[in-house]
Each structure stands twice: as C-alpha cells, then as structure tokens.
Design a protein that fits this description.
The protein is α/β, with parallel strands linked by helices. 31% of the residues lie in helices and 27% in strands. It has a nine-stranded mixed sheet, sandwiched between helices. Helix 5 packs parallel to helix 7 and helix 12 packs parallel to helix 15.
C-alpha cells in the first residue's frame, strides 16, 4: 500500500476535548463513553451530537432507559448547545425500552440495525449501554447470550459507515473486562470524586486509535454552557523556541533602588517570590511591578486569590485594570483545579500579549484549590510556573509568612526552590516602633545586594531607604530590640 488512508478528525464542539483526543474524534470510529453515574456522560454525548449533526451529517440517538427521551431532553434543553430545530430533522431519538423489556436481545439488535438502515446516520449513539447489559444479566439470557449480544452490537457498530458512541456506567477502567473494551477504537472515562466537602469531575482518554492523545487525568466542569474540559498543564518544548532565558534582559520593578539591589532588575522570564508578613507591602510591590510594565509597553495580568476585582485596594491598580492594560483573573470561586486557573491565565495572557503576571497570593491560591488538589499543591505550582515561564512570561508571586522574629523562612509551603528570585520583607522593632525592612535573598545566576534596607509604603508606591546598618540609633550605640537574626 503506497498511499496512506487519511482519517478525518471531527471537531467535538466540547471546549478542551479536541486537545485531549489529539485533534478530534476520528471519523467512522467506534467509541465508548464510560464512567460513574452522574459524571456527565449523556451531557457530553449530546454536546458532541448537537455540534456535529446537520443536514449532511445526521445523528441517531438510541435510549434504552425506562424513561422516555422527552424527559431526558427536557433537561438537556437548558444548555445553549441544544438546537430544537435539529430534532427529527438532523437528529432522531429512538427509545428501545419496550424491546428490551421483552427480553429478546436479537430483536433489539435487529431494531437498531433497521433504524440505522432507514435513517442512514453519520453519527450513532446508544445510551445507556450498561443498562442493556444489566437487563440481560437480570433475565434468562445467560452468560453466553449476554456475550453474544455485546459482541454482535460491537461488530455492528464498527461495520457501519458512521461514527458511533456507546454510553454506559462503569466503576473503573481496570475493573472491566467487557469485549466492547477490546473492539472500541476510543474510550473516554469520566468520573466524579468527592473529597471532604469538595467534588471534582475528571476525564481520561484511555484509548484512541491512530492518534496521539493527551495522557493523564484532566478536570472538567459542567456549567451553564455544558461540559468544559481543562487539559492538564504540560509544558511543550515547542513553546520555548522563540524565547530563551539568558538573564541579559532585565525588567524594572518600578523601584530604582530595588532594581539596583537585584543586580539590574528582574531577569526576563524569571519567577520572583515576594515573601513577608501581613501588611508588609507585598501587593504594593506587585502593583508597581505591573505599573512599570505598562509604562514599558508590557501588559500584565493579575490573578487575585484574596480579593475580588471590586476589592482591589490600590487606586493605581484599579486604574490599570480600567484602562485595559492589566487583566484580572477572578479566582474567588473555591474548589478550582490548577488546570482551570492556568487555562484562564493562558487565555488572558495570549489575548492581551501580556509579559508580566502577578499571583497574589500563594496562600489564597492554595485555599482556592479544591481540597483534593491541595495535597498536590507543590506539584501543581511547579507545573503552573513552568508553563507560564515557558511562554516567556515573567511571574511575580506573593506569599504571606508569619513573622516569628527568631525564625528565618522564605516560604510556608517549602516552595522557595521553585523561584528564580526571592525578595523578603520583614518587620524589625527599634526603639518601640515597628520598621519595615526589605532584602534580596536570591537572584539565580546573578550577583545581587546583600543589604537589608528600610522601606516605607507611600500611597501606591514603595520608597526604599538606608541600609539597616546605617540606622543612626544603632551606630550611636543606643539600646535597640532586634528580635530576629540579621
């Protein structure tokens, strides 16, 4: 055979699904949509069907449930993908419940074949395949009759010039040994996991013949628009072809003396961690970082995990958001996944061509994640930073630390190693007053100042002052109280 067969890939119309499948559903393939009850299998199938069905690509949907199709469609009509004009024109529903109750499974197979022959569909769906199997087991068909039914239905669906889908309820891929798993060209596995007070839905492409699918388990949501999938964040090597971190290009922080302390500014493409106790000025510093980027023609994005867009306290930051120079990701909704957050970030970064990103703060970020993802917080954060910096974006993260005075820490999560640079803000108590100090702890592959300097927070900006060693009270030998090792 000299010429390869070209298989058309059908766009599913489900956001994120085509990326998992490697470009779409292969035309004329036989697919199994399986998973636990309530995980969204029927909604996914309907979303695919209404997206693909049309005058030249008709769809046939078999239901083998005890309830009539109209009851099922009553709820599916609430989604915007539902197009009632396609019913009985491009899409036909057939209820097999009556045939199934008679227990003659050869008759059920014949009915399916007759409907396919008469309607000539390009898409065929059978929902729920599992209920057919369970009914067969409950009747007198016996094991041989059940296997006969399963094998013949699978053979029928693979022989039609149609893209076919079987929808059914199963517990786990490794727990099933049905013949349909062997003959299926594609297997989508859907599940919902309840962990403490959070519920997370996940999808996995177990199998997809002839194309490279995205491996692993991915989160998805059923929202007002239907199913939306958030592919697991994986850094692609091709993303860095036009960007290389050399340390030669420096970004100003908007504070000249801080740029000097960092050895010339923040290297482009670096991740910077700003740590300090509550009220020490982390968000003010982050705002100056974004404002300086806008002045340099570099739009920015801020993911506000602790404040909603209406609660951004800085007048300067509010002005940057209103002008459209800085985009805001509202992450106040809890029980998110890292992939949902990163999806929104990447979309906004791409749309705005942003070069600077602020994550404020890591404490709020951890809280926003569903409890099932908090256990993997460090791994999730690592993936997010890798993807963002791989896009050529410079990332500033803030993290709140409890100032214990006698203990020097750079991260409450043990994530300091993830940052290319670290700026620390602290309090010192001198002559009965709290004073703020700032220092550059780390700038990877770059010389930086070792000074600890005083700083003050003015309206919308930070002013850095003299080194701590120049404090006249210390130099004069007056009593002071420094409650941490400096």
């Amino acid at each position: 055979m000299k010429n390869k067969v070209t298989i058309e890939r059908l766009a599913t119309g489900v956001p994120g699904l085509d990326d998992l499948l490697g470009g779409g559903i292969p035309e004329f393939s036989f697919n199994l949509v399986a998973g636990t009850p309530g995980s969204g299998k029927t909604t996914l199938a309907h979303q695919i069907m209404f997206s693909l069905a049309g005058p030249e690509r008709r769809a046939l949907f078999f239901t083998v449930l005890g309830e009539p199709p109209l009851k099922m469609l009553r709820y599916q009509q609430q989604f915007p993908f539902f197009d009632i004009t396609k019913i009985n024109q491009s899409i036909k529903f057939v209820n097999l419940a009556a045939d199934l109750l008679e227990g003659d499974f050869d008759r059920v197979l014949a009915r399916i074949a007759d409907e396919v022959r008469d309607f000539l569909p390009s898409l065929v769906f059978v929902d729920s395949f599992r209920s057919v199997v369970q009914s067969a087991q409950a009747m007198d068909a016996g094991a041989s009759g059940l296997q006969h039914f399963v094998q013949h239905l699978g053979m029928q669906m693979t022989s039609w010039q149609a893209t076919t889908f079987l929808i059914g309820e199963y517990l786990a891929p490794e727990a099933e040994s049905s013949p349909v798993f062997t003959v299926a060209d594609g297997i989508l596995w859907m599940s919902q996991l309840v962990h403490r007070d959070a519920m997370v839905r996940k999808i996995q492409v177990v199998k997809m013949r002839g194309q490279a699918q995205s491996l692993g388990v991915h989160t998805f949501r059923i929202n007002d628009d239907g199913v939306q999938i958030f592919p697991r964040a994986i850094l692609q090597t091709g993303n860095t072809e036009n960007f290389a971190i050399s340390g030669d290009k420096r970004l100003s922080m908007g504070i000249p003396l801080l740029d000097e302390m960092m050895g010339g500014g923040m290297p482009a493409g670096y991740s910077l961690l700003v740590v300090g106790p509550s009220g020490s000025g982390k968000t003010v510093l982050a705002t100056q970082f974004l404002a300086e980027g806008v002045r340099a023609g570099e739009p920015g994005v801020i993911a506000a995990f602790e404040k909603s867009p209406n609660q951004l306290l800085s007048h300067q930051l509010n002005a940057l958001v209103k002008s459209g120079d800085v985009g805001v990701i509202d992450t106040r909704t809890l029980d998110l996944s890292i992939d949902e957050i990163l999806h929104d970030l990447v979309v906004m970064i791409t749309r705005m061509k942003a070069k600077r990103v602020v994550i404020d703060s890591l404490s709020g970020f951890e809280l926003a994640l569903a409890s099932v993802f908090r256990e993997d917080f460090r791994e999730s954060l690592y993936r997010m930073i890798a993807v963002l910096t791989g896009m050529g974006v410079s990332v500033l993260m803030t993290a709140e630390l409890e100032d214990r005075y006698t203990v020097l820490r750079f991260s409450s999560f043990g994530n300091a190693f993830l940052a290319d640079a670290i700026i620390m803000q602290r309090y010192v108590e001198i002559t009965g007053q709290f004073k703020r100090v700032i220092s550059v702890v780390k700038v990877r592959a770059s010389a930086h100042s070792k000074d600890i300097r005083f700083f003050d927070i003015e309206p919308d900006h930070i002013t850095i002052g003299a080194p701590l060693t120049d404090y006249e009270g210390i130099l004069a030998g007056q009593p002071t109280r420094l409650h941490h090792p400096l």
